[in-house]
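Narrative progress, year one. The postdoctoral researcher (J.K.) led the effort to move from monomer predictions toward full complexes, under supervision of the PI. The following entry was the first complex the group processed end to end, covering 211 residues in total.
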Amino acid sequence: MVTFGEVLALPRTSLHVDRGSSIAIMGPSGSGKSTLLACIQGLEKPTSGTVQVLGQDQRSASARARSDLRRRRMGLIQQSPNLLEEFSTSENVAFPLLFDGMKRPHALKLAVEALRGVGMAHRTDADIRSLSGGEAQRVAVARALVRPDVSLIVADEPTASLDVENARRVTELLLSEADRHSATVLLATHDPAVAALCDRTYHLTREHDAA
Ligand SMILES: Nc1ncnc2c1ncn2[C@@H]1O[C@H](COP(=O)(O)OP(=O)(O)O)[C@@H](O)[C@H]1O
Ligand SMILES: [Mg+2]
C-alpha cells in the first residue's frame, strides 16, 4: 500500500512475477499502475507491505542500493521515448552505458546490436527529429535493453502514443528482445490488444470502484 496524504493507492495489491515472464498491468487512470511501477523501481516506497525485486527488499534498501539496482539491472520505457535531439540514434541508445563509464567504442557497438534487435540498424546515425513515433519508441526499447545484464524491463504505457499497428509492433519487439535477454517485463497499459501479447495480465481497480 502507498498513501499520498488522503489518497490510498494499491491497497490489497499482491503480485508475484516469475523471472523471464511478461505481465501486463491494466486498470483505469488513477488505479495505481505508475505507483506500482515506481515502487518496483525503488522510486516510491510503500507505506506498508513489501516489494521484493531481483532479490532486494526495496522498502528497506538504501537509496544507493535502490539506485544501483535500477541502473544496473532495469530498463525503463515510458509513454514518450525521451530521446535527446542533440545526439544520434546510436548515441541515445548508448547513453546509459556511457553514463556508467563504459568506453565509447564498446558502448556504441552494444548500441548498434540493440538497434539491430528492434529492426533499426539502418538508422544508427539518424537524426532523432527524422524518426516517426513508432521508430522513436523502438529506439527507446533498444536503450532499455542495451545492457547485456538487464534483468527487468519496466514499461509504463509504452504504446499510449502509438497507432494500433505500431503499438503491436513495438510490443512484439519489446517482448521478443526481453526474451532474448531472459529479462522479465512489467508493462502498464490501457490497451487489451497490447496486454494480450504478454504472458498474463494483472488488473488494478480504483479503491472507490472496488468498494
Ligand atoms: N506523488 C503523488 N502525490 C499524490 N498523489 C499521487 C502521487 N502519485 C500518484 N498519486 C495518486 O495515486 C493514485 C494512483 O496514481 P497512478 O499510479 O499515477 O495511477 P495510473 O498510473 O494507474 O494512472 C491516483 O489517485 C493519483 O492521483
Ligand atoms: Mg500512469
